[in-house]
Amino acid sequence: MKKYTDKEGRNIIEVDDLTFIGDRDYPYNWFQRHFHHHRLRLSLKKADLVVAADTRVAVDLVRYYFVPKERIVIRDQEQLND
């Protein structure tokens, strides 16, 4: 996850991977998983725009964090569509 602000003052969050949520074999213990989940959740709540690495990450953002599709932009694509 990368956070930055553009020239217009919008908060932008770039999410590369959400594997730690669903994969129990990921090398995080329960505290690290909990910490990263809540840190990402709070950052997404404040974000004006979310840049997803691919379509799978965009779908997971909608599924797990209830981010509106209008705020998600997939890297190298226009917007998330059904």
Characteristic terms for this protein:
single chain; 82 residues; alpha/beta; 4-stranded mixed beta sheet; 39% helix
Describe the structure.
The longest helix has 17 residues, at 30-46. The chain is built from three helices and four strands; from the N terminus they run ββααβαβ. A hairpin with a 5-residue loop joins β1 (2-5) and β2. The protein is an alpha/beta fold and 82 residues long. A four-stranded mixed beta sheet has the order 1-2-3-4.
Outline of the structure:
The chain is α/β, with parallel strands linked by helices and 82 residues long. It has helices spanning 19-22, 30-46, 55-65; strands at 2-5, 11-15, 49-52, 72-74.
Mean pLDDT: 89
Strand order of the main beta sheet, please? 1-2-3-4
The outline comes out as globular
User: How would you classify the helix and strand content by structural class?
Assistant: alpha/beta
Low-pLDDT windows of residues: none
Please render the helix and strand layout as text.
Elements: E1 2-5, E2 11-15, H1 19-22, H2 30-46, E3 49-52, H3 55-65, E4 72-74
Parallel strand pairs: 2-3, 3-4
Antiparallel strand pairs: 1-2
